[in-house]
Each structure stands twice: as structure tokens, then as C-alpha cells.
Amino acid sequence: MIDPLAELVELLRAVGSDGYVVVGGLAVRLLAGERNARETRDVDIVAMSPGARDRILSHLRSRGYQVGATGGWHRAALAGTRRPMIDVATHPVVNPRTFEELTLREEPRIQTYEGVPIPFASANDLALLKLAAHRDQDIVDLLLLAAGLSARAIAQGAQHDDVERTAAEGAQTARLLVASGTLAGLVEELIGRPASDQELAAFDKLLSDLHKEGL
Amino acid sequence: MSQHRYVVLAQRIRCFDELDRAKEYSQANVPSVICERMARADGTSGLVEILRHDFLYDEQRNEWRVMLG
Questions:
Q1: Is the minimum CB–CB distance between B39 and chain A shorter than 8 Å?
Q2: Predicted ipTM of the assembly
Q3: What is the mean pLDDT of chain A?
Q4: Residue B48: closest CA among chain A residues belongs to which residue?
């Protein structure tokens, strides 16, 4: 299996980093310093303009990737190989479950790997994407990010995009996972270690603050 | 610490010790991904994606149909 980060570096070296923002589980784990967690086989990239989208899809097709599309996303897969799949969204990001559009509002965070600048979505923007999706794995990702999040910024983003209801569903899903004791087991299964007291306290505070913000 | 060999990432995560049961749950809860816990060289273990049920090839349209979660 080719490391998704290595694939991402190779891809952005070829098409340039300008106009792209990395989101998804890979971004969460790198921002949260959980590189050794679940080894994802896909890379999620937001193209910030139609031109950037066309450039990356054209490059992937030229390398033999088969590209499919659904609801604002494109998926590129290279059949018969163990290369990661590349999922490309066009900004604003469509939530594939609800078809709501989510805006990346904050400046991306840049980390450089092998000389290539990799723009990652800010933690608050990632958190809103995760709240909107609110699968169990998204809630675990939120726990990893919680210490650095601003409930107010997340709530303002949800209001701006008119997705308060979906984000509130996500926050409530998180509260239920905490209250039922389910979250602790999910963290152990996905991250391979128990959540720390500091992480759980930060997550409790985030959920409380989100409630105060109306989510 | 409780850990299972197979973890199915779907809207709701479920964990299994047998692959057949993981496949049943995964196929009944698309889009989903099956991960297997594998040993790493450093002695730890981690989840590695082994099977995805989140896209299909549409032969009539001649294109991939993606089912993002």
C-alpha cells in the first residue's frame, strides 16, 4: 500500500499546491498528530475553483486513473494497483449525504513535506465538515481536534452555510456517543489507544460550547 | 483494551472477529469500508482498509458511481 501522504505529495508536486485544500481523515490525523492511526486508502482534496478541479482531474486521467462523479465530488481510482483513491470536491464542498454546501472559510494551514507545501483545511473548517457528516468515525476525528476548536467559529460557519440543523444533529450524535459510553470503545478501536482525560475534557467542553452557540 | 480484528466504517461503526460477518454488515450498510487490524513492524498494530463498498462501476454509463458516506 502506497502511503496516502506520499501520494498526495506526488500529486501536488505535479499539479501545484495553489488552489487545493486537503480535508478528510488524512488532514485530521496530520493536524492532530495521529499519524499512526487508521491507515486510510483515500485522499480527500478540495479544488477551490473549477479550473483547479479540471487541472487535477486531467492530470489523474493522464496517469490512467478512472474518474467517476457524484454530487459535487469526483473519485479517481487506478484499477489493479494499491495506490490510494483520490476524492476531489469542488468548493464549496457538497455533503454527499444531505447535498448541502459547506464553505471553507478560514485560511488553510500549510505543512511542507519533501519540499512540497500541503495546504490543509483549518481545524474549525474540518470540524464543521465532520459535524455535518457525523458518522462515528467523524465523531472520533472531532475528539482528536477538540482542544484546538472554536465552537463560535464552527457555529458561525454553520449559520453562514445554513446548515445549523445538520451540524446540530452531529453535535447531538456526539453527545449520545459520549453519554452511552460508546465513544470510548470507538476511540480504542480506531486509534489504538484510549482517549486521554485531557481529550475527553476538551471534547466535553466543545460539545457544551456548541450547545451554547445553538448547536 | 478491547479491540477486534475487523472494523466496519459505516454511518455507525461495528466491530467483528470474523470477516464474513464484517462483510455482511458492510454490504448492508453502504457506503462502508472494512478495515483489518494488522501488526506493524514496530510491534504495534493498526487498522488497514481491505475492502470498500463505497463505489460501483456503472457499465451502462461506462463510469464509476461513487457512494460517499
A1: no
A2: 0.85
A3: 92
A4: A39
